[in-house]
């Protein structure tokens, strides 16, 4: 499945870039960027490579992955990983919290928000248990 149009919209929003500003970066008119976002046209391979390079992501991720979705199956094991050893690394926990909070701003589906709320609660519980145990 091609996710390019939704990904370009997500990346522009994430980077607080206007269509016009991004168009200037990659040498395209605002109307062309708008047509990419609406799925009315697709860039050529050179433009795709430039876009992927600008956002520092792989071409396959830009086209094939839905970048706005969070893969809960990957995040939850990270939170539980250190639990096996009795504590969570504060730096990792902070990074996960920042990512969850950031993605939460852009998620609109209630199911995804529910999953993120559950993950936020889990992180808060782990943070509180680390404070209590001095971890």
From TrEMBL:
Pfam families referenced in this protein's UniProt entry, alphabetically: HTH_3
Domain of life according to the entry: Bacteria
Entry's transmembrane regions: none
SMART domains reported in the protein's UniProt record: HTH_XRE
Annotated ranges, domain HTH cro/C1-type: 8-62
Alphabetized GO MF terms: DNA binding
Protein name per Swiss-Prot or TrEMBL: HTH cro/C1-type domain-containing protein
Organism field: Aquimarina muelleri
């Amino acid at each position: 499945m091609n996710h390019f149009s939704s990904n370009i919209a997500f990346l522009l929003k994430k980077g607080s870039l206007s269509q016009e500003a991004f168009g200037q970066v990659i040498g395209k008119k605002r109307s062309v960027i708008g047509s990419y976002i609406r799925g009315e046209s697709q860039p050529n391979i050179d433009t795709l490579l430039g876009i992927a390079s600008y956002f520092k992501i792989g071409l396959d991720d830009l086209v094939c992955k839905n970048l706005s979705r969070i893969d809960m199956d990957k995040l939850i094991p990270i939170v539980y990983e250190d639990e096996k050893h009795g504590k969570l690394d504060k730096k990792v926990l902070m990074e996960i919290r920042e990512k969850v909070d950031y993605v939460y701003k852009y998620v609109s589906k209630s199911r995804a928000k529910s999953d993120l709320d559950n993950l936020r609660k889990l992180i808060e519980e782990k943070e509180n248990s680390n404070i209590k145990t001095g971890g």
